[in-house]
Amino acid sequence: MDKIKMANPIVEMDGDEMTRILWQMIKDDLLLPYIDLNTEYYDLGLEYRDKTNDQVTVDSALATKKHHVAVKCATITPNAARVKEYNLKEMWKSPNGTIRAILDGTVFRAPIVVKGIEPCVKNWKKPITIARHAYGDVYKGVEMKIPGAGRAELVYTAADGTETRELIHSFDCPGIVQGMHNLTPSIESFARSCFNYALDTKQELWFATKDTISKKYDHTFKDIFQEIFDAEYKDAFEKAGITYFYTLIDDAVARVMKSEGGYIWACKNYDGDVMSDMISSAFGSLAMMTSVLVSPDGNYEYEAAHGTVQRHYYKHLKGEETSTNSVATIFAWTGALRKRGELDGNKELMAFADRLEKATLDTIEAGEMTKDLALITTLKNPTVLNSEGFIKAIARRLEA
Ligand code: NAP
Ligand code: MG
Q1: Is a pLDDT exceeding 80 seen at residue 1?
Q2: Is the pLDDT score of 197 beyond 80?
Q3: Candidate from 75, 286, 302, 329 with most ligand 1 atoms within 8 A of CB, to mutate
Q4: Which atom of ligand 1 is nearest to 328's Cα?
Q5: C-alpha 74 – ligand 1 centre gap (Å)
Q6: N- or C-end of the chain: fewer Cβ atoms within 10 A?
Q7: pLDDT, position 168
Q8: Which CA distances in Å does 153 have to 170, 172, 179, 221, 369?
């Protein structure tokens, strides 16, 4: 059989630790036998990031702007321990943060639903997709420790030099302060990405913030969403038979728990970070969650929602067997291949992505799975496979 050809490349961002091992296995066993894989490769492994003073991360994001589709392996965000472990020149910033700052946009995270892995919230029947704003707020925050008595103020100096001041607090004891920001164009593109994604996937859109307490900051998010919805999307939503619904974040959390699922929940940056871990673990596992960054100018970066699975990697280095779940990383690849196919009019590539996803889910539904799923499955007598064995089991189904 001829391998599937690709007219344009996908930007491939390699990563770290256990996910780097899975990355290679997925390419060798599930992709390269079937596709003339056309990728522009960037090594975002920590060693090479350090060697290039993190330039490789910036280059990979710029390449994504050029080619429009990227697939990313999980990467280490260095902390003090990693600086020592890898003898780093600097504590490099989170690659995801760098890439998001360059591409802007929204991260959509949806659980991968499969028979035999039931959500622990029993009324959840359909996936809940989290749409996380990927710019600003505490992730671009500036902080100060206040040593003792004194005034802390917010000061805005306009281009003409005029100052506007707001007292944060008059301290009479030590404390802490934090300043954060967002940008109107970024919030607008967040809103449009969410409305477009809702229309694309024909799902309701929910949005929630703490606007009753944060009367300027969060309220601005609420107002921008409503203005853009009324001006640009109201009719299209009506035609598609879907709704846009805004509520207070507390109310949203309560409603989510009682819902059936099947909608998109748009969250500010921090809420989305935290809530996506809650949603994914309640649906079964961090390793059963897809994640895609959609930028306002039509660039797509697919990744797994989990990290580099460090604990498993150390076992692997000691020569011990691991049972690491590769589903989210496989779905990052299928997401990127399908999108590449869609943009290039390559039906074969899109159909391949569908087949690989089906082979992956069929493998689990047939009772062959990694340990994390075997521990929670409702299927009787699952077969626990090691990291490689699971990928080989998928390859056998794909071949068939
Ligand atoms: P993690 O890699 O997501 O792993 C946390 C724990 O979750 C694992 O120890 C494992 O539990 C379980 N787990 C996660 N993914 C799994 C999978 N595919 N299969 C089976 N079990 C899985 O998070 P972390 O340990 O906090 O972070 C490790 C590194 O990843 C850090 O350096 C962090 O900076 C980085 N990170 C990167 C990204 C990203 O690139 N998107 C995101 C988050 C974290 P058990 O050990 O109990 O089996
Ligand atoms: Mg998180």
Answers
A1: no
A2: yes
A3: 286
A4: 18
A5: 9
A6: N
A7: 97
A8: 9, 14, 10, 23, 55
Tens digits of residue pLDDT in 235-244 = 999 999 999 9
Share of the chain above pLDDT 70, in %: 100
Task: Report helix, strand and coil shares of the chain as percent, to nearest 5.
Answer: 45, 20, 30
Give pairs for 368-374: CB < 8 Å, separation 24+.
368/393, 369/325, 370/287, 370/323, 370/324, 370/325, 370/326, 371/323, 372/285, 372/287, 372/323, 372/325, 373/117, 373/284, 373/285, 373/287, 373/288, 373/325
Instruction: Indicate the pLDDT class of residue 356, thresholds 50, 70 and 90.
Output: very high
- The answer on pLDDT for 203 being more than 90 is yes
* Domains in the chain: ranges and CATH: 1-111+298-400 (3.40.718.10), 118-141+180-283 (3.40.718.10), 142-179 (no CATH)
Ligand nearest to the backbone CA of 17: 1
Number of the ligand 1 atom closest to the C-alpha atom of 77? 34
Instruction: Among 20-29, 48-57, 97-106, 330-339, name the one with the lowest average pLDDT.
Output: 97-106
Q: Is 193 in the pocket of ligand 1 (CB under 6 A)?
A: no
Protein residue whose Cα sits closest to atom 30 of ligand 1: 307
CA distance 182 to 194: 17
Query: CA 299 to CA 45: how far, in whole Å?
Result: 22
User: Residue 229 above 80 pLDDT?
Assistant: yes
Is the shortest distance between the CB of 97 and ligand 1 below 6 Å?
Answer: no
Which atom of ligand 1 lies at the shortest distance from residue 372's CA?
20
Atom of ligand 1 nearest to the CA of 15: 40
- Nearest Cα to Cα of residue 287 among 231, 327, 244: 327
Alpha-carbon span 195 to 266, nearest angstrom: 10
Is 46 within 8 Å of 82 (Cβ atoms)?
A: yes
**What's the mean pLDDT in 241-259?**
96
Full-model pTM: 0.88
Residue 277 has pLDDT above 80, yes or no: yes
